[in-house]
Amino acid sequence: MVTFDCCIEDAKIYFGGKLVEGGIVIDNGKIVKIIKDVALIQADHKINAKKNLILPGCIDVHAHLRDFKLSYKEDFYTGTCSAAKGGITTVLDMPNSQPPTINVNILKERKKAAKKKTVINIGFYAAIPSNIDEISLLVREGIFGFKLYLHHPLTEINVESDEELTKYFSEIAKWNTILAIHPDDKKTIEKKLSLLKREKLSPLDIFLKTYTPEGEKKAVERCLRIIEKTRTLLHACHVSNSAALHAIQNAKERSLNVTCEVTPHHLLLKTSDLKHWGAFAKTLPPLRTQQDIEALWEGLKKGIIDVIATDHAPHAVEEKEKGFLEAPPGVPGFETMLPLMLTMVKYEKMRLDALVALTSHNPAKIFGLRNKGEIAEGFDADLVLIDMKKEYLIKPELFSSKAKYSPFSGWKAKAKVVATIVNGIAVMEDDEILVPAGSGKILERGAFS
Ligand code: DOR
Ligand code: ZN
Ligand code: ZN
Description:
The protein has about 450 residues and is α/β, with parallel strands linked by helices. The protein contains 14 helices and 20 strands. Strands 1, 2, 3, 4, 5, 14, 17, 18 and 19 form a nine-stranded mixed beta sheet that branches. Strands 6, 7, 8, 9, 10, 11, 12, 13 and 20 form a nine-stranded parallel beta sheet that branches. The protein has a two-stranded antiparallel ribbon with strand order 15-16. The longest helix has 18 residues, at about 215-230. The protein is globular and about 75 Å long. It binds (4S)-2,6-dioxohexahydropyrimidine-4-carboxylic acid and zinc ion (2 copies).
């Protein structure tokens, strides 16, 4: 009789769009079978799911794992432990690290360091290199996308010139690789900042009047106009307001190659929360209005939004304690995304199948993560076990992330991640990390044409 590596029994499995009772047989990191009764299966390791829910692990396409010179904010080990605690089995790392991921050498260094420390799967983004010839080299080195900060490019490219952007966008299109954008408008920001600092406004008002919904929409529309010619695969990060979302909806109706994501903080928090938490809720884009929140939920319902991603952007508490304008933007999100979104499922704000599509299935499809994002035979055994009855309060002091603050501090989650399995190995159970640093994998995107 064959002995498999692992067998999970007595679970409620999200399989084929439905919940089915049974077990999952795993071998060599892959799902071999999904069966009703596992009694006759021989396996080296058996996990009793105790009737808990099993979903495909979350694929977070927007995270800042930091490390290197920013290790004081987060490193590959603490970041991936934090992700595992939140039911995330794969993350894509953004390039605004220090040094930024702008060339093949730095990318290789990042991969090497991450391999030694990660407990989950990590893939990488790169910034658009100013030397256009390096685009193909970065693609060959396995990146999952390029990231462009339209208000703050990490390289010497002139983001104010449509002509220049068209050149880079065309080259990226050749390689069938995603271009993710942080949509904002450099000129508007600079002009507003200099004007507003002269007026007698509070730091918070200066911030809100600088990073506006109009700036976000303008940048989205500008990129959409360019991809109409270049046919680049565009992914708009953290859409936060109804105007930007409508621009995307409109482009989708015209069959442009555009996808977009939303974060839990933009779905669940508004400007009054920013007033309450101050710099600890300061993010870019800023938290917006109730009307924007409603537009985002409507966008989820209509399928205009493709992905929910954390934008996990950890900073040191001391940095957040500087004045509001000096404090860096960003909040940790790994340990709160899935519990809070499942809480929304329990409140019937969204359906479970939609959540799985937004956090697993669609990210895998859009970013070309083969054999991921689904529980099915032949797929990677990246799974998350959830207790849908366990309620608890969010306490940032218990985070594995180095960033022990959250604008969701004190919220009640109505579901708990009880275990996370990555490539068939139980990485986290009952808030304990069970594997050594380096047990995770570095992912590389394969060939495209
Ligand atoms: O809030 C944010 N934090 N927005 C960004 O665009 C950058 C990020 C970070 O890296 O801290
Ligand atoms: Zn961003
Ligand atoms: Zn980000």
